[in-house]
Fold each of these.
Amino acid sequence: MGEVEIKGNSIIIHSVIFFYGGAANEVLSYEIAKDIADHWNEPNGTISMAGRTLFVYFDIGGIWANDLSPEMVFENTNPRYNYFRIEAFAGGNISFVDGLGCNTGYFKLDNLLNHSTTAAHEYGHTLGLDHPKVLDIRGRGVPGIMYPRGTIVDPPFQYSPVARPLEPGGTINPFTRKVLQSDIDGLKLNRLRFNKEGFAVLGDFSSVWHEAHML
């Protein structure tokens, strides 16, 4: 979820992500936010609005919320604020968000390490993007950020370039995903309703507090 601002010849998506849980810390919070921003700003995206081209910029902040309480999540009304629990263990062994266009979720720690695209992928869900319907994209090159694990891709983007499709190693390696202009287009920023100050909201409040999953 985020607040969108039109400023000069730019359109800026402002999001602040509060991280809590047993595996969260100050350094990791900063690194995840930077990783999300780096991925989403990499394509130097643009949109066309009212007859002019605007450059799209993602302003992402990460805060370690060591003293976060459930009430702070439930009662928040700031559209820039998102809340993610980080733990070493997650039921189902995956990171997730609480729906499309939401502001809460749960991260499994090892999904986030070594510049993984997981956080950037889940952030896309918070902005309303779903997984694409067609999951065999051979011949289409670099996979966009919203393709899920299990997608069939060209060999250079598999876990193993020599594996046959759908055999071990023969599906998308999430580290090869990139934010593309098509992902920026999917946000439909030109359809948002901006107030007279030039602000709009992208996404909605899910406001879910997550307890740590138990082994």
Amino acid sequence: MWTSCTLLVLMVAFTVYTVIMRYIFKDPPFWGDTVALFCNIWLVLIAYALAVREREDIASEGIYVYLPARVVHVLRFSWQVLTFLFAAYLIWYGFDAARNVPGQFWELGGLPKKVPMMALPLCGTLVALLTASNIAEDLFDWRPQSTD
């Protein structure tokens, strides 16, 4: 959570700094847009892992009030399996893309383009671990009971 919050603050700060320098001082930093974009991409991918951890599937939760409990359980489990498969896809093809992307960012001192691309396999790994945990909780009924 702290990483996501930090990336959000950094993204806003870099964007505001770039806009002020561009329109007020007429001297924009050549790296501002690129760094803000990296913060945005990493924020979204890490927030996806957080949403998986918290089981916050907004689009699917809305329909569950109209379905029987057994169907909801099957749909949630199916969604977890599909999420795990997507995570495996992110790991496999994300690592392949990061390893094979050519070039570098001259505005960031020659940073290889594979460094920011590593967000894909990292996100895939986080999502796979969290989804595997969710699936194990569902299969073995390990979910902690609330004390409300």
Amino acid sequence: MIAFADRAEAGRRLAAKLAPLRRPDLVVLALPRGGVAVGFEIAQALGAPLDLVLVRKIGAPGMPELALAALVDAGGELERVVDERVAREFAVPLAYLDREAAREAGELARRRALYAAGRPSLPLAGRAAIVVDDGIATGTTMRAALLAIRRAKPARLALAVPVAPADAIERLRPEVDEIVCLETPENFFAIGQFYEDFHQLGDEEVMALLERAP
């Protein structure tokens, strides 16, 4: 089932649904890399600045696409959020988590140095924030991002994604004030199955979008 031509179209369709959330103190927070292309369209349409939430998935042993945990860069400090259901199912040893977290920490540091060079993070306290990605699979990565953002004390926190399983959306609902999700298909295998063009964004594309953003 193809629901979106590409991330730009998904972002524009989300922006139309998010129009009631427009306000002067709004900020759009995107998860790199794919979420930046969606977030750019939303930021453009709502006249809001675009910033990043740096987070990395830690895949289950032998199943890298299944999120076991996530590591999020919260203002330069790393936080780890574990999906206990997956950890129990795979009987994941702590040593595996520590090793994978260390590897992903290196990628987070690289992205912070590359994407955030000369761009201080936007203050979130007392502001309205919309967190954006190009889709959600299990929700573990997004939950890590939302928990970190909550600690920055935004006045209102919304989640906007083009597509996600209904059960993942329900698990995330307690973490936010509002969720906008365009598609919640029953037969969900991977985010990419709902896009005609789901190419992996390169660093150059991400930085170009950040340069063009409001």
